[in-house]
Specification:
heterodimer; A: about 230 residues; alpha/beta; six-stranded mixed β-sheet; four-stranded antiparallel β-sheet; 7 helices; about 30% helix; B: Alpha-Beta Plaits; elongated
Chain lengths: ~230, ~300
Amino acid sequence: MLENLNESHSAHEHSALVEVVKVTKIYPPDVVALRNVSLSAEKGELIFLTGPSGAGKTTLLKLLCRQEIPTKGLIEIDGNDLNTLSANDIQKLRQRIGVAYQDFKLLPRLSVFQNVAMPMEVQFKSPREIRSRVTELLEKLGLKEKKNKPAGKLSRGEQQRVAIARAAANSPLLLLADEPTGNLDAVTTGLVMDLFRELNENGATIIIATHDESIYQGSNHRKFELQQGELY
Amino acid sequence: MRFLTFIFTQSFRNIRHSWGVQLMTLLTVTLSVLIFSFFYLIYTNMLQAGAQLGEELRLTVYLESQLTQVEQEEFKKKITNFGKVEKIVFITPEQAFQRLAKQLGSDSDVLADLSPAFLPYSAEIYPHKDLGNLIRIKEFADYLKNLPGTQKVQYGQAWVERFGHFIKLLRFIVFISGTLLILTTMFMVSYTLRLTLYARQDELKVLRYLGATNSYIKGPVLIEGFALGLFGSSLGLASLFFIFQWIKNHFSSAGFMNLLELRFLPMPSSAIILLGSIMLCTLGSLLSIRTLLKK
């Protein structure tokens, strides 16, 4: 039974939205991606998940959006144990989680606008609402002029921003960003971080997996460092 | 309402994206409906022809001897025990002789030295339209043969039996063709839609990541199946109608066809074919999406 996910989230409520308890993920035959990882994220919190490439950051984010299933351990999102949710409930949960994938997962033949609109269409938002929100996001990320261009014809940096816009489209309860600034210059990195801050101020819980020190150095948000699948 | 709008928009988008494959499937459905309906149309018109000819049919029962009034009433009662008849006329040898002379026309002088006595007493039975079915006529004839005092029953057995066999054969063909075409349509629609879904695997994966429910994914596919059934069967029936009109206009004066009043499929039959096609195509689309969603 899905709990709480339809309630609106207010900023800075002090209760855990994400609970990861002693999670281990082993890929066959014996590749240990994560070992006994435990962390939590409060509602309305922004946290950084840091570590070098191959540390297990992407694996952890995949577990949080139920793209992968942990070998051992417990993951709860807003009080819901992911292991016990039905297939339909998982889909409803995913509608409340925005994910900006490291490999973007855009549909190249669809336009920028259509890609960003997809999560809103899945939730049957009105065309007017979709148009307004998508235009707003594209403007914030400097992509307004590219809205009708097929996503497959964009540069990697532009595709990355489209993926971020899509993740933010539904003003999600939880936003997971995997290396969101990997292909961006300083200016566009600033645009992306401004968007994340705005979403966070509006109550979204954000987990950013990154090895880009420039975006978390000096920040007073919590950081979790992964090294070879374990938390330091 | 919004759900329906999205589903229809998505269906339209999908059809536009794979219009070539969808068109081929549409043509397959159209041809299947056309072929099946064509045979069914022939079958219904043959049945109609049989009924028509059955109405004009009369059975002649040759009697062993003249029947008294009481025996005639008894005879009539036994006949009507089988089924309703329009009328029963008892013909004496003299009346039969006069008829024969009339039929011979200018050659009737061959009867000049003959007496009517060589002709038997007979009864002409005009069956009611309930007995107009030619298969029933045979059963009626067999019944009459077994009545006491009956020598022989005549009604054009040979061609009626041949007609009956033809109808049976046609019924068999319609049944077999219908079954094969149903299977063809369903599997063709199922595999075509599965192909378009495989081509959209990436899109479906992304939709799943974004939280699209099974209804969101299944809906457009079912609509596509429905549309294939609706338009395919409509085109098939429309094509059949044009073919029917052409045949009627070009062949209605020729020989045997002149005896028939050709009729197109009645509305209920057309409606059943239409609804049946829609149902099969929608079922085909459901099969395709269920297989894919299981993976």
